[in-house]
Amino acid sequence: MARREGTGRGPQSASITVAMLLMRLFLGGELLRSGITKWSWLGTETLHTTLTAWTTGDTPAAYPTYLSFLTTYILPHAPMYTYLVVFGEIIVGAMLILGLATRLAALPALLMSINFLLATWNKGYEWQLINESFIVLELGVLIAGAGRYCGIDSTLAKKHPSLPLW
How many CA atoms within 13 Å lie on the side-chain side of 77? Predict the structure, then answer.
């Protein structure tokens, strides 16, 4: 049985630790970078303009059944969702980098990636591939509790082993 703390002996345990660490750092770094890049969106109509472009035209970018969700619930409240996206990416990215409540952080990351996938469905293979890749990595981080591998969760799991956040 593999040790979840990543402290076992042998090359397999060390390889798993490095793989979990790299997955977590990559996802966290990309989310943090993306959120910081979107900082200039705060107080602007950028998200609304982007989503309008994705939901209109002869071939909208959004997945057909997702269009009504975007136009009914997201677009009318785009200023609020701008803050949720920007701060969500920054906070979740930082939590993943630190390995802090990693499973909890992986959930909003997963939801954001699913939403981005559906919103950009018809933009082409490249858009689908990046979002699908992020979804797979986020599922891996969520299932494995990747914060236990060289993260703050490792320490917290020792103090509170029954909590599922680690």
Answer: 10
Tens-of-pLDDT digits for all 166 residues of the chain? 444 554 555 566 888 889 999 999 999 999 999 999 999 999 999 999 999 999 999 999 999 999 999 999 999 999 999 999 999 999 999 999 999 999 999 999 999 999 999 999 999 999 999 999 999 999 999 998 888 888 999 999 899 888 877 7
Q: What is the 3-state secondary structure (H, E, C) of 58-115?
A: CCCCCCHHHHHHHHHHHHHHHHHHHHHHHHHHHHHHHHHHHCCCHHHHHHHHHHHHHH
Stretch (H or E) spanning 159: helix 152-159
User: CB neighbours of 79 closer than 8 A, spacing ≥ 6?
Assistant: 47, 48
pTM assigned to the model: 0.88
Q: How far apart are CA 77 and CA 136, in angstroms?
A: 29
**C-alpha–C-alpha distance, residues 21 and 150, integer Å:** 7
**Positive or negative: CA dihedral 14, 19, 25, 28:** negative
